[in-house]
Amino acid sequence: MGKDLMAVRPKKNPDVAEKIGSTTMLFDANAGRLYELNESAKTMWVLCDGKRSVGEVAKAMAAEYDAPDEKLAADTVAFVKKMVELGLLLE
What we know:
It is a single chain. By secondary structure, the protein is α+β, with helices and mostly antiparallel strands. The chain has one domain (7-86): Coenzyme PQQ synthesis protein D (PqqD) (Arc Repressor Mutant, subunit A). The protein contains three helices and five strands. The strands form two sheets. It has a three-stranded antiparallel beta sheet. Strands 1-5 form a two-stranded antiparallel ribbon. A hairpin with a 4-residue loop joins strand 2 (16-19) and strand 3 (24-28). It is globular and about 35 Å long.
């Protein structure tokens, strides 16, 4: 990932199928893998639309969840890094 991760605008890989509901599932047909997201990961996934930066996603998470901004920023960065590593999100 680039130098200023907070400015990156991650977007969903179009090859990944998603089912968003009471349970959120992602299916990567290329890798043959299925992923289940918890509630906060689901929120981050939805916010990663290619329009918002990682910093903007972190701010939206702070507005949604009662946790320190620094923790939510760190969690958002970790989520984006992992999703990019898995090929589920694109930079």
